[in-house]
Amino acid sequence: CSHCGALFWIEERIRSSSKINPRFNCCADGSIVLPPILPPPQELSDLFTATEIRTGRVCRTEESERFHRAIRYYNDAFSFCSIGVQIDRELAQQLRGGYTFRAHGAFYHRIGALQPEHKPAAYAQLYIFDTEDEQLTHRSIAFRNLDPNISRMIQRVLHEYHPFVQAFQNNAERIRTDNSITLRLGIVEDATKDPRVYNRPTASEVAALIPTTGAGDGARHIMLQRFGDSAKEFLNEQRQEYLTLRYPFLYPRGELGWHYTFPRSGHVWRDAPLRLGRNGSTRVSQQQWFKHHLQVRPQSSHILNAGRLLQELVVDAFVSICRSRLDYFRHNQQEMRLSSYGGLMDALDANDAVGTDVGKSIILPASFTGSPRQMRNAYLDAMAIARHHGPPDFFITFTCNP
Questions:
Q1: How many CA atoms lie within 13 A of 301 on its CB side?
Q2: What average pLDDT score do residues 150-169 get?
Q3: Beta-carbon neighbour count of residue 233 at 10 Å?
Q4: Listed residue (155, 140, 221) closest to 188, CA to CA
């Protein structure tokens, strides 16, 4: 791509573009500009890839191989939040073929009390212990298949570079000395900073662990209370700090992720009017952000070398994008129901002959893949083709492993 430098095969170009002047589906012809992915500290970078100086060939050391085999366990050990999902173990544990991360059902993340009573510490709770040795000991107990040398190195890097880890460490003493304190973890957003240029918080911008009296300000925050399992709260993956909290050593410098106010190129940060649509949008959508973020470019990205953890990140991103689209449909039903006739027909299609549920259900548009309208349209298109060209000569089915 001549705009963002993403690498493609020529046949991956947009169909309407030519081979002489190809256009690709990465940055919308330069209208999407994101900060470059910062390389991790050298110690951490060597775990992802080790490059031979003589040949330039990317290879893995023995230590790197051990790290990659258990990379999802290392991520869980250092993550600030848990992942709740039913993973297809049969597919993930196959001895032959490539590793595949496949999830079923709901996909959610939870961040709990800092010091739950009568339970071992885990996730964000580990960052409030006095010393790094204590933290390492608790991680070794929770995750027994980790290499202590690798864990110690990752822990040292995060303590040195990650602003959220530093915020926890700076406020740990306050948590231990005051049993009644209630704390709040969040980001103090600087309205003067454009996220296309500045995408990581500094230590002063992380309003982590701010004492609060419990009075809400209307915004959704990640609440971390001192005691009690009842303090558990789901972490909204739409928050821009979610990626660095869930995948801390993929974003070891605390880089921030997508935000709904992220402007397109040519528009002023926070001042651009919110318009939607392929041709009139002034904001970068979540799907566009991840599409740009995960492209292969000449500058090697450690995230694309994360193996099994990359698969989890991609599935996580896909679920988050679908969830945000569904939330939009839920809250914009009036704009999407062009007439009461459409709601009536949907009710009748659902065998609600009396029509008692008309106007109560959430209607998904045909633009959402897998929705009843999209499936019905696809069926009608198939029938129209058969009506015009005649019945098919062969009906072939096959099964393909993922």
A1: 18
A2: 84
A3: 17
A4: 221
